[in-house]
Each structure stands twice: as C-alpha cells, then as structure tokens.
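Need tokens for this chain, all 378 residues.
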Amino acid sequence: KTTNDSIITEIKSDGGGTSVQTAMIVFCGVVTITSLATAIVFGEKLGEKVTPISVAAPTVVVNTGAAALGPNTFTSRQPRAGENECEGKKVQIDNVDCLIDALENVLPQAGGNVTMGFTGELNVGHEPIKTPYFQNDMCPVNVHWHLGTEHLSVGEYDEMGAGPNTKPGDMRRKLAAGEKVRGGFRCHHYDENDAKFTTEYDWQHCVGMEVGETYEVHWPHSAAGACGTINQYQTPFYDGVLCRIGVLGDLSRLPHQVGVQGQVFTIVNDEDYFYPDLMRGMIVDGEMGTEITKYTGSTTGTSRDNEICSAYSPITWQVDRKCHMISASTFDKMCADMKSQRDDMSDDLYAHGSRELVDPKFTANNQHNRALEETKLV
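Here are the structure tokens for all 378 residues:
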C-alpha cells in the first residue's frame, strides 16, 4: 500500500527465467519503472545458471507534512550543537556626540531620507557599494526588523502613513514584544475596511507582530561573516558582521566591506503575498527591490538620535524606496528559519524600536538612486 507519507521499494524477480530484473520505486504516490540489467552475460559464458537476485523490500517512511501539517505551519529545529566561531565577536564602540564627534570624524548616520532627489549635507570622501552585496564577497549575517520605518520615503512610508494603531500624522509609541518602543513612519497601504489588513493571524514563531502594521526589515551583510557555514547568521548582528574581523584589515575600506539591505513591508493576512525565503535577503521580484537608494550611514536603533550618534560608521546602506505588502505567513516562516540556526536568534524575533529620522546635516551627501548595477563577467 502506498501513501503520501511513505516510500516503498520493491524489487521483484521472475526466478531467473529472464535476463531482466524490474525495480518498482514508489515515492510519494509517483511510480517509476526502472529496468536493471543482470550479469547474465557472464553467467552464460561460464555455462552457469543465473541465481535470482534476492533483496528484502525496505520501507522508508517519510513525513511529507501533507496530512499532519497545515499550509501555514512551519517547523523549526536547531542543528546539532557545535562550536560557534562568531560568538562574542562584537567589538563594543560607544555612541558619540553627534555635533562634535560625528561631524568632526565624518561619521555619517542612518536611517536617513531616501526619497528620490534627496541629498544629505555631510560631505564625505567615500562612496557606497553600488552593486549587489554578493558580488562584493559579502553575505547576510543577520535579519531583524523595526516597528514602522527608520528611513523616510515621501509618498511611500512617511508621517502620513497609517496602521492598526496609528492615524496619518500619528507616530506614537506602541507596545511591541511587551515593551514600549518608538514606532517610525508607516506605509500608505492600510485599509481598515479590507479584511486582509484586519484579520488576525495565528503567529507561531514571531513575537508581538500585527497584521496591518508596517515593519522595516534589515539584513546586515559583511565580508567578515562566516559566509557559507552553519554559523553565518548571528544575534546580535555585530557578532556576524565582525566574526572574522581580520578580513576587514585597517577598516579603511569599511563602506565596501559592510553593508545593510533595507526593505519595508505592510503585513497582510493574504497568501497571495507569500514569499518563502525572507530570511536570506531583500526580495527582488517585479517592482520589489528595484528602486534602491544607496548611501553610507551607520548602525541604527533607539539608543541613537540627533544628539547621540553611532560610531559604527561608515557602512553602506541599500534601501528600497517602495513599500510592499507581504503575508504574515512570510514573516512567520522567516522566524521559524531563524529559530533553526545554530546561534540563538530569539532576541530578533520581535520588532525593535525605530530611531528618529536622521537630520540632513548628519546624512552623507553620496546618495545614488539608480537600480543596482550588475557586475558583468568577461
């Protein structure tokens, strides 16, 4: 008997009366017939009768998930325990005074205004990465997100956006993951009369998330990450960014070795907006991930504002200027994937607070607004 959750392999013989053995492999309801030639030629030459092949019929049970699990049930399980080469690799650098240190030492800040045509006022002598990060020997080392947006893209996510807890012009604080955090700008998609923005979702893995709300997702990338290994993804993200810090040398090329992707979403309860691999980086599909502002800035978060600045600077930012709808299940799948990493990423399973918009005088003047340039291989 064949079911959708089993593999049955049966090898039949006619007792040696023919020169062909038939193997019938049943895999998840699909039957494949493969003819296996025997060594009868050698037997005939020696005048010997061919002995029939006798093979026990093994049964391997495979859980396909078709019966037991629903379409939005995502499982997670950490791999076997082992050494995490990136653990504790964060280098603590204290925040600095914006007016004194950030300006004097040319430490551009993020998140800034990424509206088409905007240019910051801080004169910097470096350029951001203009090509996809993977073409610069960099990989994503973390994923996390912020309530509302830290960047500003007028007409897409700004002070006139709305959500289930905010009206246009209202960016009040809101509870997220049990703590008060600062919410940023919102998108313009939310419609309280449309069920996909108001129907609750049964979250299994993400914490404190809400349908209809706006979130800005960040994927820190680094040339010093444990790229291609089981330790690639880390929380805090600094451990991943600085995992193999020797690769970064004297830090003079930091803007071309460390960068962040940023993309903004409104959560909907609609499976038409499902993407299965949000953990791996910015979605590039249709208009998603095509209108990108590239500039240099810093790390973000609510411990910084326009008085206290981040000293983790300068690094490249590549930010999608558009806001996109995405299914709640996409985020929950991402959280399940995060829980399946060797490093404990539980501190990034909820929305972090948003830094207030960086003043133009602390924003670099090197914005590039074209689509990402592909490096052509010759």
